[in-house]
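User: My advisor asked me to double-check a structure prediction for MAGUK p55 scaffold protein 3 before group meeting. I don't want to rely on an old file, so could you generate it fresh from this sequence?
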Amino acid sequence: MPVLSPTTGLHEMLALLTSQLHPDANHKEDMVFLREVFSERSLSYLMKIHERLRQFQLQSLTPVLHSASCLAEDVSDISTSTAVLIVHDTVAQKNFEPVLPPLPDDLDDELEEESVKIVRLVKNKEPLGATIRRDEVTGAVVVARIMRGGAADRSGLVHVGDELREVNGNLIIHKRPEEISQVLCQSQGSITLKIIPAIKEEDRFKESKVYLRALFDYTPFEDKATPCQEAGLPFTCGDILQVVSQDDPTWWQAKRVGDSNLRAGLIPSRQFQERRLLYRVKMGTHQSPKSPRASPSGLRRSFRLSRKDHQGSTKESHPAESTESEFLIYEEVTLYQMRPQDKPRLVVLIGSLGARINELKQKVIAENPHRYGVAVPHTTRPRKSHEKEGVEYNFISKQAFEADIQSNKFIEYGEYKNNQYGTSLESIRSVLARNKVCLVDVQPEALKILHTAEFKPYVIFVKPRIPEISRQCSSPTSPGRDLQDMRQSAEQMDQQYGHLVDRVLVKEDSASACVELRNILERLEREPQWVPVSWVRS
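Assistant: Sure, here is a fresh prediction for MAGUK p55 scaffold protein 3 from the sequence you gave:
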């Protein structure tokens, strides 16, 4: 055995004991276990801490604060392996659930052979997370739905179809569902429910992986049809929603992606929203998205044309094939991350009056021409002496241009001073084939053609910062008139094409807008983005 002196430290003693452990035939496993325990580095550190604290204790040092002395004693207590295990067991055995009052002893037998379940839930300021309805056949009050993530769902004790008999000892058989919901909403703390379980309880749900982009704004407190306004989920156009339950064909349960609130809320189902929008159209209170609309006033013209001298309107090259619903409601989406072997996504810039997006596009391309490119437009005008074929324009004859129109090769085209100009699909493909990000600025009507899996367009809506103006500045010659036109142009574009926009860029000035556009393009290549599911499904 090793010789120990009074000055031998605990960690030194531990090391000596470890060296003396020699397994024999009968206790080999025990010796191996002890060696592993004594050789544990964390145990050695604890022993050193214990020794250092004992040294301070022997020196009778006086702490500055009384709390420091208590803290030192606490650390000393837990620095031994035994104390650590005791602390673990003590904490593990503690009950951190709220203390509930005992169940009532005088439960009646009035329900005869029916199985009764007494459920006690703890509810704070959050909703209970369940809605109820009156069964049309039996007249019983039953649970209509369980909100995912709510108090009722987390308990696992309440299920769809359960019959509700009492709330906090009060019979609710003769109460209207609205009155019962009000009682449940106003109750705080412990809520006791007497329930007759459904014949077949639903299985614990598995959260759906369906994600939708909302294409309209929704405010539950303005919707009289919702079964419970407090349970509704408000959202705006462009929000991404995770649908966790479609059990109810009228009201789906969903969460807004990015919300810290884990509880699901009610949203109108696609079918229900379509039906009531169709009804409003028939009643003349809603305009169908596919009904004819006037073009936004003062939109920027394509092909570097002046609004003053423009003699023809830009035309859509061909009607886009579409299987979309008549109404803009939801679009199923998924996260898409570009891979090194993928072609870059097409970046489409649309702008309202005063945005000057062609200038913005040209600046970004000029700063990094190896990464960004522009689709070279076609024209029927003669080539000037300083121009090169395929650089400023692709120069073709009028007959060839007309043939390309008939073949639907242009995303948009127009006429200026008896010459035709157009941007073709092939000119975009040519840029992407060189592994460059193609930037195009088009009128928003062209989005119907470009919104395909081939191009996976990322649409940026550029609009100028418009200061507030006085209502008095409404005469045609007043400076405020131009600002009103710019605001109206932006509002109309947002109303008609906002559901196709991925990002809005508010242009303060040319320099800052250029910096922001560069940042957007860099994040587009680096970060995953939400895109329609049809773009990534094979």
